[in-house]
Amino acid sequence: GGIGELDGRLTGCRACPRLVAWREEVAATKRAAFRDWEYWGRPVPGFGPHDAPLVVVGLAPAAHGGNRTGRMFTGDASGDFLFAALHAVGLASQPTATAPDDGLELYGVRVTSPVHCAPPENKPTPAERDTCRPWLAAEIGLLNPRAIVVLGAFGWQTLLPVLADAGWQLPRPRPRFGHKTVVTLRRAEPDAARPAAGGARGEGPGRDVADELHVIGCYHPSQRNTFTGRLTPPMLVDLLHQAADLAGL
Ligand code: SF4
Prior knowledge:
Mean pLDDT: 93
Helix content: 25-40%
Shape: globular
Bound molecules: iron/sulfur cluster
Order of helices and strands: HHEHHEHEHEEHEHH
């Protein structure tokens, strides 16, 4: 199956008891400002085209953001910051994301997260990260991207093993997360990987399996980083420009 089928299965996942309880409790109690909303209260799938050569990997949906709207990064302060920057780079049709029916479209980029359910205090446990990792692995495998922007160390630490399992050769020692750190990965066995790609694939982007994959670290646009000026809008725009270039956009 393709990304649509994957997303459909994901939204029924109940593998992490603590997160299932939290996402549903938040959906039932709500925040006063959103009392008229019917909260999504389920796993939040990635958002963006199914053939995106650029992927942005965050952390997890926000309790009153994605867990409310059902769309990744939609309806919270981090998303406001991210979509404004994506729009400035020409990767989004509009600078704001408020609701699933707001008309927002992404161009060539898909945003997703290593943990798909809202965690208490935005902190998934290592066990929850490991339980959710196969969803990320499946999504990245179907997208076959050229470049991945990773928002923060949590995503970085989750993604690198996924890429190693997918046949990408990781430098040793394993590169540490840093803002603007770019790691270019190559296939561990390029000749072995190639015949399985291309036309053999029923769905998905139909691109040949790339010889190179660029992984770019970026500070997470959390309020802890944006309020303190650790991550500014020009910094994020600059980094997304670079990432779009590396993705061939
Ligand atoms: Fe399933 Fe991931 Fe949600 Fe855990 S975090 S319940 S693995 S979708």
